[in-house]
Amino acid sequence: MKTLARLALATCTVASLALQALPAQAGIIIYGTRVIYPAEQQEVVVRLENKGDRPALVQTWLDTGDLRSTPSTSQTPFTLTPPIFRIEPNQQQALRLRHSGESSATDRESLYWLNVLEVPPVTAGSEQNNQIELAFRNRLRVFFRPPSLPYPVASAPSKVRWELVPHDQGFALQATNPTPYHIALTEVDLLSEGKRFSKAPNADINDSLLTPAGDVKVFALPSLRNRPSGSAKVEFTAISDLGARVRHSADLTPSAAR
Question: Alpha-carbon dihedral of residues 187, 139, 35, 160, nearest 10 degrees?
Fold first, then answer.
């Protein structure tokens, strides 16, 4: 098990080496783009399938956001079964995620990460042929959602507050999340005078994730150098619980629009 944990940390390093190797491709498919865990449920099931043509050894664990986490170092209020298993080609496996009952925030969602590490079997003769086998690690967000939050999650994106603020000799859109939900954004645009100004590309996976209760993110608009003189609107795309991209429109706050 320690070997698998070390492989999870070494995957990125190995992939960057210029070695003679066969093309690598992960065979394990995870159904869904995120995991929603309503606190009132006893467990949540995540389904995996091996779409490859070889068996795979899989190890799973949760963490609180540390990319360098391992099953032995990570601590979360969950149990995940099975933690390690073999999955044959074209077969499925159900992961059962259970909250331990330990104290979590009751007024907002909590965010965890599900790690799925796939280690392909060693191919006979691979060492002699200077071939390597890569371990693949996928990470999915797990949103632990307490009961009795004040409104449905679908209402959260419309409550985001948008301001136009100075940024690096230009301007940016500043988003504030007053809701108890995480809001994952993709496209963010400012529309003004028939022109569209789009946000700069993300540098990190969490650049466009608004965490609950007051988080603020700034989205630079590289092509906007002058403050719009007329009316302006924000258009943005938020990811739903089902992984769908939902387009929204919003006004700038009155103080920012002046």
Answer: -30
**Interatomic CA distance for residues 182 and 174, integer angstroms:** 16
- According to DSSP, the residues that pair with 162 across neighbouring strands are 175
Tokens of 85: 């298993």
- 2-145: what fold? Immunoglobulin-like (2.60.40)
Separation of alpha carbons 176 and 173, rounded Å: 10
At 117-166, the pLDDT tens digits run 998 777 665 555 555 567 889 999 999 999 999 999 999 999 999 999 99
> At 45, which helix (H) or strand (E)?
strand 44-50
Mean pLDDT of 191-199: 94
pTM of the model: 0.85
Please give the pLDDT value at position 121. 75
Helix-then-strand count for the chain, H and E: 2, 17
DSSP 184-228: EEEEEEEEETTEEEEPPPPSSTTTTEE-TTTEEEEEEETT--S--
Q: Which CATH number fits domain 153-257: 2.60.40.10, 2.40.280.10, 3.30.565.10, 3.20.20.150?
A: 2.60.40.10
Query: What does the longest C-alpha to C-alpha distance in the chain come to?
Result: 69
* CATH 2.60.40.10 domain position(s) in the chain: 2-145, 153-257
Contact 116, 142 (CB under 8 A): no
Question: What span, in angstroms and rounded, lies between the C-alpha atoms of 139 and 61?
Answer: 10
d(CA 48, CA 115): 12
